[in-house]
Amino acid sequence: MDGVAIVRQMDVVQGMLHKSVIALAIVPTNRSLTVTGRKAYSVMLHLAQRQAAAGAEGADGGFSTPLNAILRGFGATNSISTDAKKYIDQMVSTKVEWRPLSKSEQQLPLGFDPATGTATDAGTVPPQITDELRIFNLLAEVRIYKRAGENWVTWYYPPSIREELVSPSRWAQVDFAVLRELTTYCAVALYEMCARYRDSPAGVTSRQHWSWWAEALRSSPTSKVRAWRKFKNEFVAPAIKEINDLGDIEIELIEFRRGREVEFVQFGVRKSARRPDRMAPVPPDVTNILRGGKLGVRDTVVEDLERAYGAAAVADGLDRYERFLSGGDRPRIGNAGAYLRSIIANKSREEGGAGYGGAGQGATAGSPADAVLLPAAAPAPPPSRHAADDAERHRRFSRIREQFAQLDAEEQAEWVRRVRDEVEASATPSPSIMKRLLRGEWQSPLVQVMVIQHYARREIDEDWAGLPLAEFESLMATHQAGEPGAA
To answer: Higher model confidence: residue 118 or residue 268?
Structure first.
């Protein structure tokens, strides 16, 4: 069956992307790939498959569409060079390593004959390929331009994998109705990989070492995973819950231990009774991300805020931030991301929203954010459970700070370096904050909270402040008994 016939057959299932197995378990090797970027890549694959089926691809093998069909929020007035480039550039410049989900997938015919400009036949592939390593860019070339006043994009896939991406011989059925609801990179990657086994008689994925899964499910090649327990609690467990709550499949984590330590991991996969309505692919909406970028807020920060509070709350927070900046004689905001977080959290608190506990550290009492957001005559709240919770959180913070102070200087410096890398990647830090992080001055009031909280999330638990008291005390005792402070 030729490539066009395969695509026509696959398009029978409305609202489903038949995503090639070579685009599922991919590990970025040189830069981070955001959840927005990964979703946009799936939309581009779907558009390419439809154009190939209709014979509408370019004579040079490229695929074209309005930019707004890939990323919502790019109107005709948006700047191509500054707004669109960073998302498209992710896919052109990100090198990924493909991890086959099974041994049989190591022998897919992904060759390329320069003489003919076409993929090689399966018969030319050497038999019994094992331990194969393939690294390629997600896209080979992209052109962004104006057509009749509208932003357009033309893209090209690497020639050796083009046919397998556009007309895959093995694929996973990815439901766009589910994909649009998932909010983290880990959830999107895990869903796409497990969807490969939706109709598998065995009902389980391949069994891999836990580090294999950790690398395939994280978005950044620079984040080092020190322990499966921590990665599972922080990323995998929330992703499984999100998929099971929203998806068309149900996933179960299966761990294989050697002694007390988890060594291998696989996932059980079964169809869910839930059947989301089939829908055409909806491109990720980057309207808030574009607005935040103009205010100095990183896209990853906006994604986190949308995940915690919802897109509407973030849009309202951006409105408030813009109104604040439009006033005269406003002070310079050192950390725009933290400031926006404080605005949204304050608004959520006023409305009694559940997002109150997610407030950032950007604004304190008496800051401009409070002056804008809090009613001047608001009475002091009566003593409540929040006061007791705050006291307990402060007590735990003090204990963790004392534990951190007992680490040797080299370990403290390493933790401060990790905080500095995280701040640089997710926010626009003020010079005063960066100066203290560069000097390793973790006790400075400007950086102490972010250092201790980062340490607590990684070494105690992601929800260290909300753990039951007995569990918190047990974890603290374990660390004080001699567990390394930093692995």
So the answer is: 268
The beta strands (E) that lie in 210-278 are given as 249-258, 261-271
Same-domain pairing of 85 and 172? yes
DSSP E strand stretches across 87-194? 95-98, 112-113, 118-119, 134-137, 141-147, 150-156, 171-175
Q: 87, 71 in Cβ contact below 8 A?
A: yes
The residue that leads in pLDDT, 136 or 354, is 136
Domain of residue 438 covers 389-480
Least confident segment among 136-140, 218-222, 267-271, 478-482:
478-482
Residues 151 and 67 in one domain: yes
Q: Please determine, for residue 104, whether its predicted confidence score (pLDDT) is greater than 60.
A: yes
DSSP alpha helix (H) spans, 374-459: 385-405, 409-426, 431-439, 448-459
Is 427 within the bounds of a domain? Answer: yes
> Residue 367 burial by CB count (10 A; 0-12/13-18/19+): exposed, middle or buried?
middle
Could you tell me which residues are beta bridge partners of residue 143? 154
Q: Residues 207, 46: contact at Cβ < 8 Å?
A: no
Mean pLDDT on 9-33: 77
State the pairing for strand pair 16-20/171-175: antiparallel
Cα–Cα distance measured from residue 170 to residue 104, given in angstroms and rounded to the nearest whole number: 11
Q: Which residues pair with 268 in a beta bridge?
A: 204, 252
pLDDT tens readout for residues 164-201: 888 888 888 888 888 888 989 999 999 999 999 988 88
pLDDT at 378 over 50: no
Considering only residues 295 and 390, tell me which one the structure prediction assigns the higher pLDDT: 295
Per-residue burial over 288-300, b if 16 or more Cβ lie within 10 Å, else e, is: bbbbbbebebbbb
Closest CA to 249 of 178, 185, 184, 201: 178
Tell me the percentage of the chain whose pLDDT exceeds 70. Answer: 75
Q: Do 403 and 469 fall within a single domain? A: yes
Helix (H, G, I), strand (E, B) or coil at 110: coil
Identify whether the C-beta of residue 35 lies closer than 8 Å to the C-beta of residue 10: no
Residue 277 lies in a domain: no
Cβ neighbour number for residue 445 with a 10 Å cutoff: 7
The one-letter amino acid code at 407 reads L
What is the reported pTM? Answer: 0.60
Same domain, 35 and 132: yes
In a domain, 383, yes or no: no
- With cut-offs at 50, 70 and 90, classify the pLDDT of residue 377: very low
In a domain, 177, yes or no: yes
Dist. CA 47–CA 283, nearest whole Å = 11
Residue 409, helix vs strand vs coil: helix
Whether 39 and 106 share a structural domain: yes
Structural domain total, the chain: 3
**Of 338, 373, 408, which residue is a domain's last?**
373
Measured between alpha carbons, how far is 295 from 17 in angstroms, rounded to an integer? Answer: 35
